[in-house]
């Protein structure tokens, strides 16, 4: 029997005495894109934080390559790229410095890789300015440039990655996420917008349909 890369078993999440979802069973395998959708407050961010090991479930289990996630924290931290719904960068650092420290504990990145990644997200010439001087969409792009670095982890968990991006950047990011999956990576993400580019292995989980 093949073991799923990531699996939830009867996963239940309660916050502020309210059950957001109960007994959720899902699997994510190599090459798969999972879109978590649902209305505001339905628990999308909470689910992504659980899958990233940033929160503990109320009950149930998360298995990472067949082993309970809390026993796999180190392996997961090396194989997961998490981007929350804020840009996730330091305003006083430059784009280049942000990418250098964001990757330092994982795969690392050299200066040339960082320039190229920033160029891929349309930030050529902005590598050496403090990020607080960039627009919201540009700051978002700095965080997302991590998705263009070589040796990026296989599993990407992204909370509202399209926020603040213009139309062209949204289309480029959609294609990049789909391509990552087609090359054997995995993407779990939330968005309120309708995707135009999907990989062959695409599934959607609507937490609104599962409201308890
Ligand atoms: N820091 C927190 N402390 C306590 N309860 C929280 C916290 N964050 C969220 N919640 C509760 O969890 C519920 C789900 O929040 P969550 O952010 O997971 O929803 P969401 O589906 O991602 O919403 P949105 O579409 O607005 O981003 C909220 O309605 C709130 O009651």
From TrEMBL:
Domain ABC transporter: 6-207
Protein name as annotated: Cytochrome c biogenesis heme-transporting ATPase CcmA
Gene3D superfamilies documented for this protein: P-loop containing nucleotide triphosphate hydrolases
Record's keyword annotation contains Amino-acid biosynthesis: no
Organism: Thiopseudomonas acetoxidans
InterPro entries (UniProt xref): AAA+_ATPase, ABC_transporter-like_ATP-bd, ABC_transptr_haem_export_CcmA, P-loop_NTPase
UniProt gene name: ccmA
Record key words, sorted: ATP-binding, Cytochrome c-type biogenesis, Membrane, Nucleotide-binding, Translocase, Transport
Annotated NCBIfam families: ccmA, PRK13538.1
UniProt cross-references to Pfam families, sorted A to Z: ABC_tran (PF00005)
């Amino acid at each position: 029997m093949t073991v799923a890369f990531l699996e939830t078993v009867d996963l239940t999440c309660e916050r502020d005495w309210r059950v957001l979802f109960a007994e959720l069973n899902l699997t994510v395998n190599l090459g798969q894109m999972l879109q978590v959708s649902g209305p505001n407050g339905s628990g999308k961010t909470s689910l992504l934080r659980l899958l990233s090991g940033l929160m503990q479930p109320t009950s149930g289990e998360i298995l990472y390559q067949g082993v309970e996630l809390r026993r796999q924290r180190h392996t997961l931290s090396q194989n997961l790229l998490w981007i929350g719904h804020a840009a996730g960068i330091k305003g006083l650092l430059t784009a280049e410095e942000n990418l250098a420290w964001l990757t330092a504990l994982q795969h690392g990145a050299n200066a040339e890789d960082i320039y190229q990644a920033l160029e891929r997200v349309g930030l050529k010439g902005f590598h050496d300015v403090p990020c607080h001087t960039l627009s919201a969409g540009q700051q978002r792009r700095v965080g997302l440039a991590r998705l263009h670095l070589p040796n990026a982890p296989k599993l990407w968990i992204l909370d509202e990655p399209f926020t603040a991006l213009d139309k062209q950047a949204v289309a480029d990011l959609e294609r990049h996420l789909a391509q990552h999956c087609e090359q054997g990576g995995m993407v779990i993400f939330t968005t309120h917008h309708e995707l135009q580019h999907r990989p062959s292995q695409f599934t959607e989980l609507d937490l609104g349909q599962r409201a308890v």
